[in-house]
Every structure is written in structure tokens, then in C-alpha cells.
Amino acid sequence: MSGSRRKFIKNIGSTAALLGISQLSALANDKEQTEILQPAKRVSPNDKIRIAGIGMGIMGFGDVETALKVPGVELVGVADLYDGHLIRSKEVFGPKIYTTRDYRELLKRKDIDAVIIATPDHWHDTIAIDAMEAGKAVYCEKPMVQQIAEGHKVIEAQKRTKAVFQVGSQRVSSVALAEARKRYLAGEIGQLNVVEARMDRHSALGAWQYSIPPDASPSTIDFDTFLKDTAKIPFDPVRFFRWRNYQAYGTGIPGDLFVHLITGLHFITGSLGPESIYASGNLVQWKDGRDVPDTVVAIFNYPETQIHPAFQMTLRVNFADGSGGGEYTRFIGTEGVIELGWNDFKVIKHKLPQAPGYGGWDTFRTFPTAQQAKFVQDYNAKYPESTRNGSQYSNNYAAPKGYDDRLEHFTNFFESMRTGKPVIEDAVFGLRAAGPALLANESYFSKKIVNWDPVKMQVI
């Protein structure tokens, strides 16, 4: 190991151990090692926080189960429009919890301090604002809102009520993303110029064809309330359980998946957002009645600011990926790249030599013999041997085995409630991430470039 690399590893403040990690092993050679990142130690709380879950689907159950792992957190009740979700909640969390179809019943209760909103996207803003005005802290699943205008209303409500409000893109609380941010800000990859990411799938469940319970019916589901202010249609269990497939209730690929990638980008770089968005795609395989595409590619142009250079981000999601799916996110700079996993990442540094080189696929071989000799003589005089070799090395970083960034995100949320410490992802951050994702949808359907003011968070 060279002295410079030894010094580099020694100076990394979060080193705990050097081990091999499976997620990065495919990227690493036998000589590479992985630094295990340690999350901050938490002080055990003395006070109880009582929560309620609103929307007990896939994310609702997952969020509540994770939140209850935080010491001092108790579940009081849940709300959902499907009776089966309420029955299942009692089976999982105990028969004593309060259950209701009407989320407003939970907001009236004095023994509830915070709510977790994991409903379909078109309900996020209304429930979040109602909850904050009722004096509750709010953990709202991503994307924060379905429409840009709704985001500004949520921001205004948070400022007015002073409520603790966190958006549920848990990745920003990851110890791995925090370390990646440190590496980026330290200039590890030089000047950022391109970000590229893909998140591809090849399964029915991955394409949102979620299971529908046998008892789904107008008597077990409050379908009219689910519809909210969208077009009134006859009962349709497919729309209720597979709502992500429809523009009326969800936000498609950009709102479900792009928003994760945009959130991580903004956290690492400190960016406020892009100035233009263009998206294209198609409905390739999942022609099941949905009115959103299953394949989307979007280009986001980020302007130069005082804290980062101009760069371009390209995001792709393909639900018809015959290779089996997979994902990556790469921050590409002039001297290296950060390759993100979920709770791990890799920094690959590649510095060009000072000397440009000659020969190979080059004009050198087309010179007359005498000119080749003269060129070599001049080259050797201008570029000493020490300037002719570049350098390349890589370092791996990963959270400890069993680490859960969603648990970390909830821990941050409850810590904010207890201490007044700012949340990781407030309503403004949430709209800065959701806005470009929602505009990818607008660009796709309008077939036009959409211009965005990332400071004012408005379409231009």
C-alpha cells in the first residue's frame, strides 16, 4: 500500500473494520476491502411517543413495524378503507389497537402524537395538512404530494403549525449516503459532470400487479372515499389495490422510483434541483388497463450554482427488463466515480496522466518516419517518465450487516419530536425532490421539455 493511500484510509473518521461485503463484492477485486460505517449512538428516551398509521397497505405495515422498533414508540390505532387491512392490523399489532375507516377519528384523539401517512399519493396532501392542523407530527411517504401546488400548501401548513414533518425517502438517513456525501464534498471524484441511474424490474409484483384479496367488494372497501376528488366510477378492486397504475391516484414510475434517486442526489450534492426535465418512454409489457408507462427514461439538466457545477442526470426505469432487472446510481466526475448501492457505495478514482500519450488509435502512425522520430524526441523532452502514468484505485464503504436505513429515518423523526432537532427531509426538501419527479410525468405525457425554477419550486 502506498503512503498516500495509507494516509487516505487512516484519515477516514468513520472506520470501524475492514471486511468483505456481498453487495459490493461483484465490483471489487481480491485486493479491495470494505470499510464498515457505524451509525451514531442514540440516547434511550424516557418519554413515550404514541403513533397511528393511516393507510395500511404494503408501505403502511412496513412503516409501522419499523417505527415500533424505535424505543419508546407505541401504536394506538390505524385507519384504512379496506376492512381486511384493519383486521390484519389487529392480528399483527394486537387486538387492543383502535381501528377505523375514517382517518379523522385518529386525528381527534389526544393520545396520538404522530401519524404515518402511507395512503395512495392523491391523499397525501389532504391528510398531512389535516394532521398538522390537529397538532400531530407527520411522517409522510414519498412522493410528498401528487401535484406541485399541493406541495406548496403542505409547506405553508408546516410553517404555520410548526409541526414536525418528515418525508419518507429513508435513504437520506442512511449512514452510507452520509459518508458518500462526505466523499463527494471532499472532492474525491473531481468535478461532477454526469449522474446516471437505473432501477429495472422483471416481475409482475415489481410492475405493481399486487394481489387482490378474495373478499374485495363494495361492502369491505370504502371505494367512494378512496376516489376522493377524482372521476366517480363504479367499484373496481383493481384500481383500489393497484392504484400506482393510474394517473388519477398515483404518480407512476417517477413518483415511485425516480424520487428516491433525486432525493439521494440532492442530499449528497446540496442541489436545489434541475432547471429542465425531459422524459420519454412507452407501455411495453404490462398492458393491463394501466394508463402510465412501464418504461421511462428522463434527462434532468442541473444548472451551475455556488455549490455545484452544471451537470446532467439520466434516470431509467424498465419494468420489462428481460435481463432480470437490477439497479445502480453513478456520480461521475472528472477524476472518479461514486457508485451507490442501497446502504453501500464505492469510490473509484481514475486520474489521467499529465502526458497525453501517442501511438495506438492515433495520427502518430500516419506521420513520415522522420517526423515520427522528431515527434518522439520532442515528446520525451516535454514529458518526463514521471508524467506518463495515471493512477486508479477504489475504496468500498458499507453499513453494518442488518442495518436498516428506514429505522434510522424513523429514529431521526422521533428524535426531532423529542428534542426539536431538524428533521432530515422536511416539506421543502420533499417538494424539491418530488417536483422534478412529477414534472417527468408532465414531460412524458405532453412530449415537451418542462422548465423548472428550483429555487421558487415553480414551473416556468
TrEMBL record:
Residues 49-168 form the Gfo/Idh/MocA-like oxidoreductase N-terminal domain. The keyword Phosphoprotein does not apply. Keywords: Signal. SUPFAM superfamilies: Glyceraldehyde-3-phosphate dehydrogenase-like, C-terminal domain (SSF55347), NAD(P)-binding Rossmann-fold domains (SSF51735). Gene3D superfamilies: Dihydrodipicolinate Reductase, domain 2 (3.30.360.10), NAD(P)-binding Rossmann-like Domain (3.40.50.720). Residues 241-339 form the GFO/IDH/MocA-like oxidoreductase domain. One of its GO terms (molecular function) is nucleotide binding. PROSITE patterns: TAT. It holds the Pfam family GFO_IDH_MocA_C3. InterPro entries: Gfo/Idh/MocA-like_OxRdtase_N (IPR000683), Gfo/Idh/MocA_oxidrdct_glycsds (IPR050463), GFO_IDH_MocA-like_dom (IPR055170), NAD(P)-bd_dom_sf (IPR036291), TAT_signal (IPR006311). Residues 1-28 form the signal peptide. PANTHER family: BCDNA.GH03377, OXIDOREDUCTASE FAMILY PROTEIN. This is Gfo/Idh/MocA family oxidoreductase.
